[in-house]
Amino acid sequence: MLVSPLDLPQSTSLWNSVYNVYSVLGLASLGVTFAVMFYLIFRYRSKNGALPPVAKQKEVRDSWKGPVITMGLMAVVLVFVGAQTLMAFPTYQTVPNASASPFGGCMVSQTTPNLVFARVPNNGTNLNICVTGRQFFWSFTYPNNMTETQLIVPVGRIVVLNVTSIDVYHQFGIPSFRTKTDAIPGRYNVVWIQPTEVGNSTIQCFELCGVGHATMITTLVVLSPAAYASWYSSLGGSNSG
Predict the structure, then answer these.
(1) Edge-to-edge, what's the strand order for the sheet holding 170-174?
(2) What distance in Å separates the CA atoms of residue 189 and residue 141, rounded to the nearest whole number?
(3) At residue 199, does pLDDT exceed 90?
(4) N or C: the chain end with fewer CB closer than 10 Å?
């Protein structure tokens, strides 16, 4: 199903456009495949049990234009969709002040190799949160070192999530934001979101991590700036988060 970028948070709109490109091409390929199949079934069907003339059979065997045209079209499509995917990565820009901004209890350097595909825009008000996966729940550590089992964030702000695990491999994902990254022991992977409206979204693990994998679910809670400031202050943090 095609999804309008207007239905998604701003930080995911380009990824959604890439998804729509793949969906349209997939449907087009399905239509062309069935059209060609039914044409060939009708065109070369057996008539009263008779086979096509030998000359025509040889002509079909010796034809090279069809395969060449097909492979050429496939190459054009693959280059096009590949370029669309690569063009989506610049949506994420430089991690702002990563070495100076605490991710709860986990400091991250800008030179960390696995930040290459986690570049985020810098608007000076980013909220940095450390996400830890363990069997079978998530924990979220805020800059004041307080830890929660739900991800609570303010609407409108860029939220930078530094994701890791303390036991086995997990995969952190927020489906409504089209956001996923691996949670690997001893490694930090960074993703970011920017909520555009107040509400709740599901967070879950997308990699089989044990018998409780299906229960490794929590909630992203997006609050108004005032409600978030009040909640964060109740944890003993500043209003800025």
Answers:
(1) 151-154, 217-223, 199-205, 170-174, 179-183
(2) 15
(3) yes
(4) N
Indicate if 191 and 120 belong to the same structural domain.
yes
Q: Considering the domain boundaries, does residue 241 fall inside one? A: no
At 132, list the tokens: 């830890």
Could you report how far apart the first and last alpha carbons of the chain are, in Å? 37
Count of H helices and E strands in the chain? 4, 10
Look at residue 56 in the predicted model and tell me its pLDDT: 54
Q: Which two tokens stand for residue 26?
A: 């997939």
Whole-model pTM: value is 0.63
Report the CATH number that the domain containing residue 131 is assigned in CATH: 2.60.40.420
Q: Which residue has the higher pLDDT, 132 or 39?
A: 132
Query: 85 lies in which domain range?
Result: 5-91
In a domain, 18, yes or no: yes
Question: Are 140 and 176 within one domain?
Answer: yes
CA separation for the pair 135, 161 (Å, rounded): 19
